[in-house]
Amino acid sequence: LFNVDHGYLEGLVRGMKAGILTRADYHNLAQCDTLEDMKLHLQCTDYGKTLSSSEDDLTVSLVDSKLRENLVAEFSCLRSNALPPLSTFLDYITYSYMIDNVVMLITGALKQRDVAELLPRCHPLGAFDQMAAVGIARTPTELYSAVLVDTPLAQFFQDAVSESNLDEMEAEILRNKLFKAYLESFHSFCKNIGGATKDIMCPILEFEADRRAFIITVNSFGTDLSNAERSALYPACGRLHPEGLCLLGAAQDAAQVKDVADRYPAYKIIFEEPEPGSGFKTLEDRFFEQEVKLNTLAFLQQFHFGVFYSYIKLKEQESRNIVWIAECVTQRQKSKIHNYITIFQGTEQ
Amino acid sequence: MDFAIHNSQSRTIVYAKMPPPLFTTRESEGSSTLLDEKLLRFMEQLELLEEKRASLNSLIEQGWFSMSKARYSMGNKHVSPLQYASEMEPLVLVHAKTLDSGELDFSTERFEQKCCKEVGADNRSIEEIGPQEKGVRRRIKPKEDITKKAVNEETSSENAPEVTPVTKSDQNLQQDPLKWFGILVPQSLKHAQLSFKQVLELSAEIATLQTAVLSTRQELKHSKKHKHEEASATQLDSVAD
């Protein structure tokens, strides 16, 4: 019965998934000395002529943009053929990009950047009609009532409305509050769908919630964000809720954050000291690795929506990998080039 | 040493041309020693300069690389020229002082973060170097304004350069450039800023050292010339005798 409505698209996404770069592909890319070489290698993959069609100078930023365009094209193909509730599910995926775009437009306006300059740099997956007007709003309340009230983001504004002027701090707070509401909403949506979708998606979203709580906490040290303000940004749909979040809210330094993580086996590993000799990985790197693991699991089950979410997220990681390799190539930092995360080993398809 | 035996009538007078009188020996020894000292100093300064330059290059590379890491975590378009304004207030000033020896000394001074009420009281004018830009520089800039705006203080030289008044900006806040990218930025971006801060200080040191090296080289030249002149004067003297 799933297949009646969604079978074609599931088949489609699994086909796309087969084109995800393998270990061997990354190995070839890492051997390149220039971006041109990388372009040649990418032509042999599913990316084909994506990079070749461009007239502009090949820069890392351009590579990133082209990879993004590719993903957007694939997503649009899926979305345009989707029926409810898959269509709603796919829309949920786009909301995170919308939130990012809104914040980029606000901070761009703070820097007196022209809207015409900012719009092309926004993520296409998060495009909406009222984007051009976002930069005009002075406060979150104004943003809501004047610009976003008719967009899907309106539903996430319950806790985010405020009369404070939108400066860098307020923009950051807004971003995280919107994201918190979005994640919690997405989580209950998946829960309501039930079945395999719930089994696959809820752990992924819970992990996302916990990751945000950890990262927000760690990055807030040394900034003007108070503990109370910080606690208000933690999404509540993760495993850390409620005790872990309470403890994180009170944490004053990295050691205390690690204490909190040690209480949860899954997170203890992430915060563990690396073995001497292994390459240094940032906290974000380790979270990305864990995210990739969770997302690859989605393809082991059938007849659920998780494959769509996971495909998008894995393709994003792939973009990050390729861009990372490109940066190492252009900056001649070959020693760190292998910091990418291999997604599929290449034996399974 | 020259020996001359003069046979003068019945007397044999032996003149031994002694080495130049003690006074002249010390002088030429003295100038040789001085020359050696200067040469050693020149070498030391050069070595130090090379070390600092290598350090500078490595810090700059590190900074750019940390920025790439930040882009990896935050998203490629979130660490880019879109995040900063084309007009900015410098946080670091470079002071150029001319010392008594004639050498230039460069030092950096960092502004304390001011709140908006206090700004405006600072009357030091800032000299704009380079073309005034209307447009946007596409190249991604390091954290702080690398086009150093120099303030000359207490120079012994008469000629103070023309100082153009600072262009008025709407944003009176001198802001930590890290905030351009958000409040909750990852560690890698903070590392990048640290690297570039060190680059600024090192640049001033290198500039000072460079002028010192050039001046030492000049001194060396003069000393060599002087010694050469001395030596040929002494030779002429001895030939004349």
From TrEMBL, chain A:
The keyword Ion transport applies. Keywords: Hydrogen ion transport, Ion transport, Transport. GO terms for molecular function: proton-transporting ATPase activity, rotational mechanism. InterPro entries: ATPase_csu/dsu_sf, ATPase_V0-cplx_csu/dsu, ATPase_V0-cplx_dsu, V-type_ATPase_csu/dsu, V-type_ATPase_csu/dsu_dom_3. The keyword Disulfide bond does not apply. GO terms for cellular component: endosome; proton-transporting V-type ATPase, V0 domain. SUPFAM superfamilies: V-type ATP synthase subunit C (SSF103486). It holds the Pfam family vATP-synt_AC39. Subunit of the V0 complex of vacuolar(H+)-ATPase (V-ATPase), a multisubunit enzyme composed of a peripheral complex (V1) that hydrolyzes ATP and a membrane integral complex (V0) that translocates protons. V-ATPase is responsible for acidifying and maintaining the pH of intracellular compartments and in some cell types, is targeted to the plasma membrane, where it is responsible for acidifying the extracellular environment. May play a role in coupling of proton transport and ATP hydrolysis. Regulator of osteoclast fusion and bone formation. Belongs to the V-ATPase V0D/AC39 subunit family. V-ATPase is a heteromultimeric enzyme made up of two complexes: the ATP-hydrolytic V1 complex and the proton translocation V0 complex. The V1 complex consists of three catalytic AB heterodimers that form a heterohexamer, three peripheral stalks each consisting of EG heterodimers, one central rotor including subunits D and F, and the regulatory subunits C and H. The proton translocation complex V0 consists of the proton transport subunit a, a ring of proteolipid subunits c9c'', rotary subunit d, subunits e and f, and the accessory subunits ATP6AP1/Ac45 and ATP6AP2/PRR. This is V-type proton ATPase subunit. It comes from Gasterosteus aculeatus aculeatus.
Automatic annotation (TrEMBL), chain B:
GO terms for molecular function: unfolded protein binding. Residues 133-170, 217-241 are annotated as: Disordered. Residues 142-152 have a biased composition (Basic and acidic residues). It holds the Pfam family Vma22_CCDC115. GO terms for biological process: vacuolar proton-transporting V-type ATPase complex assembly. InterPro entries: Vma22/CCDC115 (IPR040357). Signal peptide: none annotated. PANTHER family: COILED-COIL DOMAIN-CONTAINING PROTEIN 115. This is Vacuolar ATPase assembly protein VMA22.
